């Protein structure tokens, strides 16, 4: 048995299309993010005032920084459709991206997109506005899919139509945060480029991806910090 275990360790690890560790079975990270969103939604119904502690209010973000990420896992309790549409999108794009990127890279991409959505809200929304929803993360996954399938004209055409409709709805229908969509989309593209555009022939491919994602994350956190300080609402 020890010999078999040692032999298995010596086998080269299977890699995904973009250098992550290949794993069989369901896209666990995608399902985990969906499960977290659903769990938070249930808690919003069960715990009085819970939603108010999660939403992103730019003027309060410097004092309550958890809102920058919790707002990406909370949804409007006035309409189940808000949660359902976002989770359907996460499922569609997550099952397309996670197997190609691997769990670590996909998780990183999702969180970058979520924080990017918060940054968009901080920069472009009214300081006293309240925003919530996974739309920023979803926009990031959506635009990342463009990068992954950039050579597939049919897929790009179909996604382009969906993108145009979503952008139009963000400006026409009240309650949809186009600011969060924009921020998430930009970070989704940048994150995907860090993962996807490093050629297979690069012997340091994985290291380069991690370094670029780390640099992007640091730049994003710095931009978020500066933005929260700029819109800080004086208390007392």
From TrEMBL:
The keyword Transmembrane applies. It holds the Pfam family Rhomboid. Coiled coil: none annotated. It is a multi-pass membrane protein. Residues 64-194 form the Peptidase S54 rhomboid domain. It is found in: Membrane. This is Rhomboid family intramembrane serine protease.
